[in-house]
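note to self — DONT lose this again. spent like an hour looking for the file last time. sequence + predicted structure for the chain T wanted, 413 res
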Amino acid sequence: MSLDPTQFTNHAAWVGPRRYVEQKWQIDQAAKASVEARSSGYASVCGPESVPDFAAVRQRVNKQADIAPAFEAVARRREAKAREAQAAGHPVSARNSFFIASVLWGSAQWTIEENTPQNLFYNERKRDCYMGYAKLADHRVEAAWIPFQGNQLPGWFHLPYNYQGGRVAAVVSFQGMDGFKEMGVSLLGDRWLSRGIGVLAVEGPGQYESPLLGIPVSMPAWIEAGPLLMNWMRARPEVDAERIGLFGSSFGSFFGTLCAAHEPRFKACAVRATCLEPGGHSIFEEAPPPFKRRFMYMANYTDEAAFDEFRKSLTWEGHAEKIRSPYLCMAGEADNLCPLHHTERMFSVLQCAKQLVVYQDAPHGLGGVPSHNLGPDSSGFIADWMHDRLHGKPMASERWYVQANGQVVKTPY
């Protein structure tokens, strides 16, 4: 069954999809490795000061149930450090610790797929710590609330370093299924802000905080979201209305693609770590079952058969063909969550300037393989590409294949 979208899953009897129950022992065995993989990404956003925090989490996690309390314990310690530094008159130390604490609190929410008091508490702490960071940040940061269907989508709006007035280029940034907006801009030397690009890091329908607000994921919701996000951005006096782009990572690659298809005022769209398989069979039926459990929560389903019907609607088909702005995709050749041929098929129907960059042997997250280590860094490449597009630099439609030695083979589309 589908639940009332104003009352997301909060039922003790709900345990998730069938494979989640049947493979629970395997999920527990993989918990440590899963935390290892994710914490490295979190630490890269938080900077070197956070390394001991994530190491402490990894030491404590031995099964799935350990993840939330492990992150909570470290988040409490880091938040206490932030408040001590603030009381002592050390704003930089307080700023850094508030940011790290916010990401730790958000990480504690990762495995909770219900609107429980615990999840709501973690979300409150995450927001409160991030607001503490925003007040002390080295650039202008403010909470953003985008009107949506009588509700509001949550976000954080960032202006570039050393902003002195006037209008700047900007991007709307989406994280993936397990990412959250507080990770959308790095604590130190952010790739967007350092290039003079503002950022609206936002959670669209079904993403992270949105389920807590009663806003589920659906195709109609995301189609509607694009124009509303654009309208919000164009109303900002600091943003150049003619230089607004989109960025999406992981499942954000699909959401960003939908927004680009239905809002032609976006000047460019860049995505990485793709989730572009229509219906998502690989991620929902072959990948570890926590992915499916998470998305069922995002879509507000507890009945697996009903969700399986719903997920068939998740497709770029009939939508991507409408994109006219330049489009960049960074993909892994060995992506287990979205086999590459689905991305290649979408590129075959795109009718815009397009660039596909494929990393040899790379998994979903792209990193950890020679092609990414020795070839173009995907993070910096995306930011440079977006900067060029938002400033009117022309591009050729090409497919790049990054070999294991870092060399790039380019072929035209």
